[in-house]
Recover the amino acids of this structure.
């Protein structure tokens, strides 16, 4: 593949969640990059992207927040690719990119705030924002992964859960839905492809892009619990042992409401929730502890031991 | 119940008498049932403009009522009364009182964007839901929704320090919405978290709650955002027209009516 070395060195935007509750995702992403010979340079003095909250106060402030991160990566660090493992960060950077290219009002506000804040205004097109999935898929690819597998996932039955922010709305992801090789917004498959290359067996899971209610995980817990329980039970019905996640909000939402469903609704589910970077890391020969499996609330250490991965 | 029926005939508009004799003929019960004629007293010609003036509501005029939004809606699957297409219809028609009937559920939109994905007219129904929820608060029909409180707690932290700390957001939210920290599922989650966490991670999480994470060199950006917010608020006050302050229900009847 001519694109093999495409993302060898990228700017890394972890985001707030990966510094807090989603530390295992941060650790495993870094460890996986190292194992695959991919270099990550953290965006200097990055700020929060605004997640799903600031946009409800003012979408233009949210656009500014994302633009500042991209401006630092492009203008102060000289990068042309920013990699964000968090769906929320990834989504917001993409959305800011779209708004700055198409909406004069947003552009005006961003210019004004950037100028006052004393940094260069980000201009649409300066960087390409990618997700951790694109990062592995386009730099290493399935074939590359297969060659590097040291510890096959051994037919582990996995339901791949992508969530909302990775695929919707379609217009902010112009590179998706572009035919063979590109990601699909209706039936995403990058995580499936990568985990299959690492030896997993992907189950037929119908709720890949269903919503976990992450935006209201605390403010409307009862709804979130219902939505999560639906996802967990569908995964179990599909025969999955593990739900692979690629978003810290989905991940902690699934973990939290799995417990809440058990305590409040009395519906217990046993499916384990693991970040896809943790699964790939273990397949690359890293120990379960190294990729932080023991730090997940959903306790999957026994399963990993059973599979010969821990 | 299909929407058109619900819209036209409401239980409270059905009148029947247990005992009614007219001209010597007993017409008690179902025989005397009639529907009160429906009057729209507070038709608001500007409703669509008001929603359009709020962030997210800009494209509501494009809607041609195909119903793709409601059909794909995550919340509609949980609660059939959650109906974006119907609310867009009411807003465009100016049926303010009818819209306000659903004031307590509109904020529940989870922003999954399935509607935006499905919409053939780029109405961005997700944005319309947020604009409508804001409108209800601005107009004084509802107090701040839990979601709004959460958004505020979160945004305040981001604007102040450039970053958030999850623990603090959760704590502030639960305090501001007067929720107990001793809910059984919350305790269970903390227990499971403690069981496996290495001392080092506990220490970092603990330290983060004391020494709040902040973005280096954030000061100028914070001030610039605050300036922008001030200017924006002044402009918005003029655009929305008179506000009715929300009054907390006090008498038992008012509380029951809530």
């Amino acid at each position: 593949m001519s694109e093999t070395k495409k993302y060898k060195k990228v700017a890394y935007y972890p985001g707030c969640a990966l510094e807090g509750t989603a530390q295992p995702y941060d650790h495993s992403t870094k460890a996986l990059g190292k194992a695959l010979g991919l270099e990550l340079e953290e965006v200097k003095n990055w700020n929060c992207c605004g997640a799903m909250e600031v946009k409800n106060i003012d979408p233009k402030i949210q656009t500014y927040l994302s633009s500042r991160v991209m401006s630092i990566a492009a203008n102060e660090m000289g990068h042309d690719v920013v990699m964000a493992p968090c769906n929320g960060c990834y989504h917001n950077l993409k959305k800011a990119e779209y708004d700055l290219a198409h909406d004069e009002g947003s552009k005006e506000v961003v210019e004004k705030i950037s100028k006052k804040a004393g940094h260069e205004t980000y201009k649409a097109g300066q960087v390409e924002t990618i997700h951790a999935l694109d990062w592995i898929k386009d730099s290493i690819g399935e074939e590359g992964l297969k060659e590097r597998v040291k510890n096959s996932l051994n037919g582990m039955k996995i339901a791949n859960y992508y969530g909302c922010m990775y695929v919707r709305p379609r217009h902010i992801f112009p590179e998706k839905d572009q035919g063979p090789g590109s990601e699909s917004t209706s039936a995403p498959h990058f995580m499936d492809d990568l985990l299959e290359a690492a030896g997993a067996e992907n189950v037929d899971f119908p709720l890949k892009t269903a919503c976990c209610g992450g935006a209201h995980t605390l403010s409307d817990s009862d709804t979130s619990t219902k939505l999560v329980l639906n996802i967990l039970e569908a995964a179990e019905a599909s025969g999955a042992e593990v739900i692979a996640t690629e978003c810290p909000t989905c991940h902690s939402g699934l973990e939290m409401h799995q417990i809440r469903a058990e305590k409040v609704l009395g519906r217990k589910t046993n499916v384990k929730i693991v970040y896809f970077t943790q699964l790939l890391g273990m397949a690359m020969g890293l120990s379960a502890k190294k990729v932080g499996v023991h730090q997940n609330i959903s306790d999957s250490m026994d399963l990993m031991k059973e599979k010969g991965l821990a | 119940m299909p929407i058109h029926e619900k819209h036209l005939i409401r239980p409270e508009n059905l009148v029947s008498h247990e005992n009614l004799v007219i001209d010597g003929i007993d017409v008690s019960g179902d025989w005397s049932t009639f529907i009160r004629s429906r009057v729209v007293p507070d038709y608001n010609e500007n409703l669509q403009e008001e929603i359009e003036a709020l962030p997210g509501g800009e494209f509501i005029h494009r809607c041609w009522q195909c119903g793709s939004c409601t059909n794909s809606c995550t919340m509609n699957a949980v609660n059939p009364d959650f109906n974006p297409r119907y609310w867009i219809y009411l807003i465009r028609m100016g049926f303010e009182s009818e819209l306000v009937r659903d004031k307590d559920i509109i904020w529940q939109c989870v922003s999954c964007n399935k509607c935006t994905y499905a919409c053939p007219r780029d109405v961005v129904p997700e944005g319309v839901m947020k604009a409508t929820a804001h409108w209800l608060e601005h107009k004084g029909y509802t107090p701040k929704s839990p979601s709004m409180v959460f958004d505020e707690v979160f945004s305040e932290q981001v604007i102040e320090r450039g970053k958030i700390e999850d623990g603090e957001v959760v704590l502030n939210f639960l305090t501001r919405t007067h929720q107990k920290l001793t809910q059984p599922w919350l305790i269970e989650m903390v227990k499971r978290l403690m069981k496996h966490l290495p001392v080092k991670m506990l220490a970092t999480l603990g330290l983060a709650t004391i020494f709040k994470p902040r973005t280096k060199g954030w000061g100028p950006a914070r001030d610039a955002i605050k300036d922008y917010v001030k200017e924006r608020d002044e402009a918005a006050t003029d655009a929305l027209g008179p506000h009715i302050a929300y009054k907390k229900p006090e008498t038992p009847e008012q509380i029951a009516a809530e």
The mean pLDDT of chain B is 84.
